[in-house]
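thread: overnight batch results

M.L. [08:02]
morning all. the overnight job finished for the chain we discussed friday. pasting input first so we're all looking at the same thing
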Amino acid sequence: MIRINASLDGLYLNTYWADGLIVATPTGSTAYSLSVGGPLVLPGTGTFVLSPIAPHHLTVRPLIYRDNLRLTLQTRSRSGNLLVSADSRSVIIEDRLELRISKAPFALQTIRLRDHNIYQTLRSKLMWGADPRNFDHP
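M.L. [08:03]
and the structure it wrote out:
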């Protein structure tokens, strides 16, 4: 368990006691963040998601915040080491770390298929509508 002090644009948000925190874009919200109870966020919403991993307090929940805010995380480990992982890259660091996370100044171009949309992808990947009682919908 680690302690993470979080601030948004320099304003104190919370101190998380948890196994970690996930910061996700709308695209990333359907991956690891979703598996720890984070929300699904649709593309184009202009938001990020902050999802705690196994928080020590029951009142700590995922947070959606505007993507134009800068998130600052200050960490402190009880064991002396921290594992920082970003997009399949991991590094072990010493006890303390300050991370500043903000939206890049450029947009990533994505492929959009004709006759296919995000809702179809969600239904397919998450098996929405797989209940046989929904026989009247494609």
